[in-house]
Amino acid sequence: MNSALPFSYNTCLESGDFDEVQTFLNSRIDEREVKPLTSQGGSINRFTLQPLQKTFVFGACWGERVHVRSGALSTCHLVLPLNRTIRVCNINRTLGTNEILIMMPGSEADLIWDAGTSAIVITFDSETVQAWSGLKSESLLSGALRILCSSSRQARSLFSLLQCVASQHQINEGNVQPVMQQHWENLLIETLSDQLTDTIPAQIDILPLHLRRAVDWLKAHIEHPLNVSDLVKIAGCSRRSLETGFQQFIGCSPARYILQQKLELAHQRLQQAQGSVSDVVYQCGFNHLSHFTRLYKDYYGETPSQTLRQRTLVTRG
């Protein structure tokens, strides 16, 4: 999907008042605490909506950098950034463009949205999901947080499905018929079926020993040039076993995981204004500025220079 906020025919709220935004969110989903982290003034927060029977698909765009927190969630929520990034503080992970955060009932939201971030937020009706899992004879996960990489089959399928929903919204000027709403809701739950139940693989903090060795070593050496062969040696297994393990337990290939970790490190340093873009490229083990810039923009929806410029402006302000 592109970075434009979808579902524009049903704009629920446009406001720069964060108290008003918090009241709006709390009236429609689980209670949230909303705290702006910058004070630019005049920035507008915008929310749109496409209901799918008992499932609500929101478009959300924050005008300023904002911290959004909740208590234990009562139902399943999904967050899908369309541009820029969202920091998932409770698992110390940055959610990149076209990745998907799944928050199961009992988990807590603890998210920092970059200014200007657009995303889709989906809230499922708990009874609907419970009824579906009962039909499948599978128990619903509780308290789990999970990130689907943009390259995963489920993520690609879900974004394709949401593109169809957004197109139907535009064609029908926001008046999607109930029978179609039911159809899209069923497809959404079906697409996420193995992520919502106990058949889902273990979280990244509960990895097999050989994968844990590889991940820990990678994070300790992330500033250096790395490749999959390095991880194979550290893990002490075959390349095929490593690839299979990463796909099963982490949701992406080892090469993709290395890249994500390096891009997240670069993003953090740019946000902290630690040197020039060229300095950060060198510090994070990238060899070519142009190649890094392309990868960074694909992942975060903006160039490294734009990230650095925003941080510099906030610091000066």
TrEMBL record:
SUPFAM superfamilies found in the cross-reference section: Homeodomain-like
Q: What's a Gene Ontology MF term here?
A: sequence-specific DNA binding
Q: Which PROSITE patterns match?
A: HTH_ARAC_FAMILY_2 (PS01124)
Q: Which residues form the HTH araC/xylS-type domain?
A: 212-310
Which keywords has UniProt assigned to this entry? DNA-binding, Transcription, Transcription regulation
Which PANTHER family does the entry link to?
Answer: ARAC SUBFAMILY, HTH-TYPE TRANSCRIPTIONAL ACTIVATOR RHAS-RELATED
The molecule here is called Helix-turn-helix protein
Organism this protein belongs to: Marinobacterium halophilum
